[in-house]
Amino acid sequence: MKSRSQDHSLSESTELDRSYDPLTGNPPYRATKRTIKERFLKLLPCYHSGSSPSLNQSNVSDDAELLAVRYRPEGLEHLMGQTSFSKKELQVLYRGFKNECPSGAVNEETFKSIYSQFFPQGDTSMYAHFLFVAFDTHNSGSVNFEDFVLSLSIILRGSITEKLNWTFNLYDLNKDGCITREEMTDIIQSIYDMMGTYTYPCMRDSAPRDHVEQFFQKMDKNKDGVVTIEEFLETCQKDENIMQSMHMFDNVI
Amino acid sequence: MAAGVAAWLPFARAAAIGWMPVANLPMPVAPTQKNKRQDELIILNVSGRRFQTWKNTLDRYPDTLLGSSEKEFFYNEETKEYFFDRDPDVFRSVLNFYRTGKLHYPRYECISSYDEELAFFGIVPEIIGDCCYEEYKDRKRENAERLMDDQEDNKDAKLPNMTFRETMWRAFENPHTSTMALVFYYVTGFFIAVSVITNVVETVPCGSGLNKKEVPCGERYTVAFFCMDTACVMIFTVEYLMRLFAAPSRYRFMRSVMSIIDVVAILPYYIGLVMTDNEDVSGAFVTLRVFRVFRIFKFSRHSQGLRILGYTLKSCASELGFLLFSLTMAIIIFATVMFYAEKGSSSSKFTSIPASFWYTIVTMTTLGYGDMVPKTIAGKIFGSICSLSGVLVIALPVPVIVSNFSRIYHQNQRADKRRAQKVQKARLARIRISKTGSSNAFLHSKRNGLFNEALELTGSTEEEKQLSKSTSLLESQHHHLLTCLEKTTNHEFVDEQYYQQSYLEAGLHNYPSRSPSLSSQEGVTGTCCTRRSKKHHSPLPNSSDPAHMQPLTHAHQQGLQELSTIHIQPLSTSRSSLNMRMDEPAPLNCQASQITTAIISIPTPPVTTPEGDAHLPAAPTHQNVVKVSAL
Questions:
Q1: In sequence order, which residues have a C-beta less than 8 Å from that of residue B191 and are 6 or more positions away?
Q2: pLDDT of residue B275
Q3: How far apart are the C-alpha atoms of B407 and B206, rounded to whole Å?
Q4: Is residue B306 a contact partner of residue B299, using CB atoms and an 8 Å limit?
Q5: What is the pLDDT of residue A47?
Q6: Which helix (H) or strand (E) segment is B75 a member of?
Q7: Pairing state of beta strands A105-107 and A142-144?
Q8: Could you tell me the pTM of the whole model?
Q9: Minimum mean pLDDT among B273-277, B503-507, B571-575: which range?
């Protein structure tokens, strides 16, 4: 028994104040208090049984159970039909996917943590969140392998129009068909966040805003403050830089 | 790079599509696989047990044996497999490291064999995962201590060139070193025993004296006892003086506990010698003789158990203090209660609360002399409660002291365990290093890669060999991804050091020669081949610090001239594209497969402008940036 721990227990009087259970170190088991209170309250005529906390807990554990359920994707043939990947490519992709997410579906936290490993210097959480929303086409809160591979197929093997459509979908955060200045600011801010603090030249606070201005000047043809899908497609297809960048994805896999 | 998620790199690269419409600069060329072959299975035969894995898995860590070309040394042509004559059980952990990115330490494995295997396969043990790291460090420390103990046992051989004083001190400290020391050890022990027995026997009444009264032996055989006492004190004095002489640090020796005990043991005799004639202080003198009993403590030099006991009591001081404190509290409470309970009864011994203390102590320690007993009923009730609580209060801290003793006893041969702070500090440093490692790798390879390209163009080979460490395809793709991000945001990744330097300089230096166009541009991406880094073989001037470029330019004129001779056709267009402002996306006719080298002049007067660029507009001359980049 080190003197350190000795002093620790002597100075704390929390067990006397019943704010902490000395046996387990946890706050006293609240359920017993509540059941006693509940028993008392039941006697009162105005008591109505709402959802007791114990039920909430079982809900939470049920969710955990659901997440632990194995999710299996459709067969290779089916996926090959839906996407434009070859069999070998799908195999490689699935192996990597399953390695990180043994349960077969990735939730947003895992998604963010995986993506952040590629950018050690910056904060990738916002951009990863936008990506997750874009990948999760069913809004189910998790991305299974089919969603994953479908989106990848569009990005890597789709036509230019499909790629641009997907990108527009990524930018359009509320999915209303047009990109507003606020949405674009969020997106660009998240991209700049990925750079981190140690950049050259020093990151100014106005840099994202300026970038948004440039983007809107370029894209917003009718100057109505939002960028619609037609404006976006039109401008991008005319821009050689962007066209050339789109071809960069041809040999990613 | 996070090799564990290497398989997700295609996803990360695909996610970069979100940057494309936003970026205003052209993206760099993506690295392609030179020979696009399918991923192949590799067979690793480790002492007969065959492991198979994908080649890409092993390539994740190119600076280990299996990830680099070093494994070719172990390739067996006939069986088309890699044969390693090592332990297959440990190899399991090694291979799992490649697969999962986490290195685990199996508990049943011997620490030194594990270390050897890791060293063989070129894996640094620091990357052991958090789950196993504590165990690994503990085992390693135990092993180191065991080695140290073994070494210490051999150290007792007599070293030559020890002075007489050092020899004496070693003899005193460790009686097994020589026969003389052993003799001395037993002689002093004998005399301590004799002295103690003399003190005891002195007080025993032996025989009757002249007037039928029992006299203690001390008074009967005064001379004999006096002689015995003198002899013992002589020996002790000589021993003390010898120890004092031999001690390496006399001051420290004199302050030590044992020497104080020695002094206290022999002092009464000398004081007695001095004060025999004075009758007034003979009473005090008698009291002083009590201190002779301290000679028994001199035995602690002879017994290790005694020393451990003393050390235990010292280390359990807090528990003992707690025991004392709680006892005092209980004594006061019960004494008060007993006093008031017994106040009513007649001829009660409980005359005051301090008088009741004695009763409480005797009862709580379950002694129960019986000289004070309660008579009233209330008194008896409280008395029984007192004795019960006494048992509890005393029984609780005692096992703690006992376990302390046993722990110290077993730990007696070992050094103390390292404090948690040191381990924690080392781990934090480790985590920090691994975090900065991947970003540093990118910056490093950026510098290397660009410089490489430049040198390739100039045709110099010796430094090229030095720098061209082949990065794996995975790494080059990852770096390409990071470069795309840089291009999108028009900023660059730098390391912390450089950032702080440039930040400092931005505050310190004025750039009067800078054109407004430069300052308004978001990021003149001044990726010079070498930043303000510690590389010494960089002849190219630094872009970040124009004020310092003056002295450099002349010296590096030559280097710049060399570069200027590389004249590739798209030079002008790429340069102008870099010069352009943000809101003029000029079309870029940079073909994907060409290496374009852009050279921009440095701030000194056009003398340093590369000669071949005569057809370029004059605007670039007040660019303060020198850039050699392979786009």
A1: B231, B232, B235, B236
A2: 72
A3: 47
A4: yes
A5: 54
A6: strand B75-76
A7: antiparallel
A8: 0.47
A9: B571-575
Return the higher-pLDDT residue of B81 and A75.
B81
Give B258 to chain A, closest Cα distance, Å: 26
CA distance B499 to B496: 5
Helix (H) or strand (E) holding B134: helix B130-154
Residue A104 has pLDDT above 90, yes or no: no
Contacts of B523 in chain A (CB under 8 A): 200-201
Cβ distance of A196 and B493 shorter than 8 Å: yes
Q: What angle do CA B505, A212, B477 make, to 5 degrees?
A: 70
| DSSP structure class, residue B294 | G
pLDDT of residue B265: 86
Lowest mean pLDDT among A207-216, B186-195, B396-405: B396-405
Report the residue from A166, A187, A248 with minimal CB separation from B27: A248
Neighbour-count burial of A33, counting CB atoms closer than 10 A to its CB (0-12 exposed, 13-18 middle, 19+ buried) = exposed
Q: Mutate which of B8, B9, B11, B37 to test chain A, going by most A C-beta atoms within 10 A? A: B11
Contacts of B403 (CB under 8 A, 6+ apart): A1
Q: Report CB contact under 8 Å: A198, B495.
A: yes
B577: tokens are 């594209």
Q: Which residues pair with B49 in a beta bridge?
A: B46
Chain A residues in contact with B494 (beta carbon < 8 A): 198-200
Task: Say yes or no: B585 contacts chain A, CB-CB below 8 A.
Answer: yes
> What are B154-176's pLDDT values in tens digits?
555 556 667 888 888 888 887 77
Interface A-B, measured as beta-carbon pairs within 8 A, has a size of 188
Find residues 8-67 of chain B whose CB sits inside 8 Å of chain A. 8-15, 17-27, 30, 32-33, 38-39
> Tokens at residue B223, please?
């001379």
Structure tokens at B511: 């750039």
Token digits for B253? 């020796």
Closest by alpha carbon to B491, among B521, B534, B449? B521
Q: Is the bond preceding B551 in cis, omega lying within 30 degrees of 0?
A: no
Residue ranges of B 113-152 with Cβ closer than 8 A to chain A: none
C-alpha distance from A27 to closest chain B C-alpha (Å): 26
Among chain A residues, CA nearest to B39:
A92
**Other CB atoms closer than 10 Å to residue B433's CB: what's the count?**
12
Alpha-carbon radius of gyration of chain A: 26
Q: Which of A192, A197, A241 sits opposite B585 (nearest CB)?
A: A241
| Residues on chain B touching A130 (C-beta within 8 angstroms) | 18
Strand order in the sheet with B75-76: B49-54, B41-46, B81-84, B75-76
Mean pLDDT across chain B, nearest whole number? 73
HEC sequence for chain A: CCHHHHHHHHHCCCCCCCCCCCCCCCCCCHHHHHHHHHHHHHHCCCCCCCCCHHHHHHHHHHHHHHHHCCCCCCCHHHHHHHCCCCHHHHHHHHHHHHHHCCCCEEEHHHHHHHHHCCCCCCCCHHHHHHHHHHHCCCCCCEEEHHHHHHHHHHHHHCCHHHHHHHHHHHHCCCCCCEECHHHHHHHHHHHHHCCCCCEECCCCCHHHHHHHHHHHHHHCCCCCCCEEHHHHHHHHHHCHHHHHHHHHHHHCC
> For B459-556, where are the alpha helices, taking DSSP H only?
462-467, 473-489, 496-508, 516-520, 546-555
**ipTM (interface predicted TM):** 0.70
Residue A49 reports pLDDT greater than 70: no
Determine whether the interchain pair B489/A251 forms a contact, defined as Cβ–Cβ distance below 8 Å.
Answer: no
Q: Which of B14, B21, B490 sits opposite A249 (nearest CB)?
A: B14
CB B330 within 8 A of CB B362: no
